[in-house]
Amino acid sequence: MINRVRQLRKERLMTLEALAERAGVTKSYLSKVERGQSVPSIAVSASLAKALDVPLDTLFADAEELAEVTVTRAGERQPLTSDREPGTRYEGIALQAGSKRMTPFMLHPPHDTGPVPFRDHPGEEFLFVHRGRAELIFPSRTVTLETGDSAYFKATTPHKVRSLGAERAALLLLVADDRSGTETPHPHLP
C-alpha cells in the first residue's frame, strides 16, 4: 500500500498537504504511511481511497493486474498490517478482482481493545467467524460470536472487534460501500 498511496497522489498532482487535508489525517502521519513507517487502519485507508477518488482495493493492488475472476489461496493472502503490531491484523483477499461492490479481508482482532478506538464509516459490514471466538463491540451492546456465527451491520454504527480465548480469532470481513445501485467499476467507501 505504501507506494500505491504515493503513486496515486503523484498521478493526481496532489501535494502531501492536500491529500492529508482531504483524507482527514495529518501531513506527518500521511508521510509516515508513504514511507512505510505507519500502517493505516481500514477506516483511514477508506478515507485515503475516497480522497484519491479510487476504490479501496486499489490501494492494495496493481491496477494492471485486476481480473474478472480471482482466486486467493489460503497461503497467498497479502498481509496488510504487520504481525508485530498489537492491534487488529488484516489480510487482503481478492485484491486483483475487477468489478466488485465489496472488499473482503481476513481479520485477526486483538484480545485487548482498550486502546483501540471505535471505527465507523459509510457502508455495511459482514463478519463471519472462521476460527475461534470473538466479540463485536458497539457503544450500546456487545455480541459474542462463536465459530460459524456471523453478523451483518451498518458500518456507520461505531464498532470494534476483539478475540476471545487463547488464540486470535480469524474472521472473514466483507466491507461494502453504500452506493444505491449506481454502476461503477469498483466500490468506493465514501
TrEMBL record:
<dbReference type="Pfam" id="PF07883">
    <property type="entry name" value="Cupin_2"/>
</dbReference>
<dbReference type="InterPro" id="IPR011051">
    <property type="entry name" value="RmlC_Cupin_sf"/>
</dbReference>
<dbReference type="InterPro" id="IPR010982">
    <property type="entry name" value="Lambda_DNA-bd_dom_sf"/>
</dbReference>
<dbReference type="InterPro" id="IPR001387">
    <property type="entry name" value="Cro/C1-type_HTH"/>
</dbReference>
<dbReference type="Pfam" id="PF01381">
    <property type="entry name" value="HTH_3"/>
</dbReference>
<dbReference type="InterPro" id="IPR050807">
    <property type="entry name" value="TransReg_Diox_bact_type"/>
</dbReference>
<keyword id="KW-0238">DNA-binding</keyword>
<protein>
    <submittedName>
        <fullName>Helix-turn-helix domain-containing protein</fullName>
    </submittedName>
</protein>
<feature type="domain" description="HTH cro/C1-type">
    <location>
        <begin position="5"/>
        <end position="59"/>
    </location>
</feature>
<dbReference type="InterPro" id="IPR013096">
    <property type="entry name" value="Cupin_2"/>
</dbReference>
<dbReference type="InterPro" id="IPR014710">
    <property type="entry name" value="RmlC-like_jellyroll"/>
</dbReference>
